[in-house]
Amino acid sequence: MCGLGVVQSIGGPLVYIATGWAELLRPAYGVVLTGSYLVPMALLLVSYRSVSAAQRLRLRWMLGSSLLLITGIFFINDPVILGYLSSLIVSQWMIAMAMAGFLYAVVRHRVVDLAVILNRALVYAATMSLLLGLLALLESLIERQALGHRASLILELAVPLGLGAALNTVHGRMENLVERLVFRRQYREEMALRNFARECAFITEPDRLLDLTVEQVSLHAGVPWVAVYERSDNGYLRIRQRGCHDLALELERDDLVFVKLRAHAREVDLHETPSGLGQEGHAFPLRVRGELIGALVVGPRSDERYAADERELFEHVAHEVGANLFALRLHTAEERARETLASTKRRIEAILEEARNREAKLLELLHAQCAKEGT
Asked: 34 or 166: whose pLDDT is higher?
């Protein structure tokens, strides 16, 4: 089937006439040429059984759109079923719906990684440019049609200011619409992580803070695994992990990843850094007052890489968690020191009390001895 499609695409009808295969050009054989499109459909169907739930949603959109596309192509290749005019109309509508389905799947469900060509900054810059163009067009039309050459300076200044104020509201609504339609999932996950970064300062237990950190990052960022390392006496110890991945329990203090984290105070791509953490994922520093106390390590997604704003968000979360973890550790150390001091004070008071009791007993014995001797 693919061979027939290649022959027709390269040589066209002349090849079939020259080789005596002209019979295959009749509409009755259109299903043969359409059959080549069933190959990617079969690949999608075979893959559907062994992928995750998130991937299945993407595959359903791709399968539905592919089915519309193949049906439209079938009506083009075999127009005798519906008639030439009806086949043309139906096929064009089906192909248009298929292209719309592919576009929605790519943009909404991230079938491919759009981080390079489609991000918030680019979309918002485009919407802003569009609004500025509309503002310039409206201002030009108003100047030509309404104001004329005899309008006062105040009126000429008031018109663009009024248009700018009106389009500012439109700009806000357009950005909100873009967030809801294109970046809805990303926006909700980002807000959830930012809220956690702000609220983690009110967690009172270090263990609870660490548990919630790996839980929230894994839940809202869609990472396959996440781990937290904290500085210890001998190096850096893995104190929390969520997700299945073979990570070292303890790393030396001068592991290259932690050397880079101390030196540059920013994220480290593990793919570019030989380390005991492996070569997949990113490490983000847990820093307090310029001192590295640990790292937040996240695994790579299988279908797309992390955009710059996502990595910046991870770094923000790591900074807030590191600051609170340091404060909680310091508070725990202060409580332990206070308890040790109170215990030492109680022991000293007990020793002094015992010494006073012994002194009182010695004085009683001394007085009794003196009274006995008559002195």
From this structure: 34
